[in-house]
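re: ur question from earlier - yeah i can do the single chain one, its not a big deal. heres the input i used so u can compare w yours
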Amino acid sequence: MRSVKNPFDKPPLTFLEQVDLLKSRGMRFKDFSRAKRYLSHLNYYRLSAYWLPFEKAHAPCAFKAGVEFNTILEHYIFDRELRLLVVDTVERIEVSLRTQWAYYLSHAYGPHAHLDKELHKLRDKNWDHKKNIKKLRKTVKKSKEKFIRHFEQYREEL
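and the output i got, formated as tokens:
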């Protein structure tokens, strides 16, 4: 019986061997120790997604002329920074929307509008108010948020 070679049965490479492999495939390096350091923190396969557009062939891998590791790294860093900016922006929008929602509900229906079963029935006939309030209380009890802990401590003192 003939043995079929599994393409995923590759031996692990040291970080320096990874740099050497990339170099043998045509990637250029200005600073080998810097490349080794980045590979040791970012992972070869994470970075591989960023060098795909710079390959002239994928199997076997060969890079287009003049491709530098620093270019790949700049693409990774740009993507990372963009992702962080997007997450930060989405978080700000989320907090603002929740603030406006809480402000409106508390002014229109009182500070405990979330406890008003009838108010929620207007929104959704299938709303299981008792179940959702129980879930909310469980979440609050498990929370480590300072403002929630402060509120809970204040409530206990009353």
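The two ends are 79 Å apart (CA to CA). not sure if urs matches, ping me
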